[in-house]
Amino acid sequence: MAIGEILLLVFVFVIAGFLGVELISKVPSQLHTPLMSGTNAISGITIVGAISATAVALHTEGMLSNICGFVAIVLATINVVGGYLVTDRMLGMFKKKGDNKK
Question: Which of 16, 39, 54, 66 counts the highest number of beta carbons within 10 A?
Fold first, then answer.
């Protein structure tokens, strides 16, 4: 990979990080739970993409690609599970005190 390609990828990563911080900081608290549920669905798509990219890397690339793919799958899975747990906990805050049925 050429140095120009690496710099472009780093630039896109940094811009995406700044944009993400700006967007998240402007979301009102009333919209947080519905947006988090949508983000969890998108993270599920990220898991599928990581699995397919890792499958392609198994047949074409070296060991570093396999390790990066595995790490991507693990981190995306942690993101989805954690997001659903946080969403469930936030929705539990809106239940009545005596309502223990599911």
Answer: 54
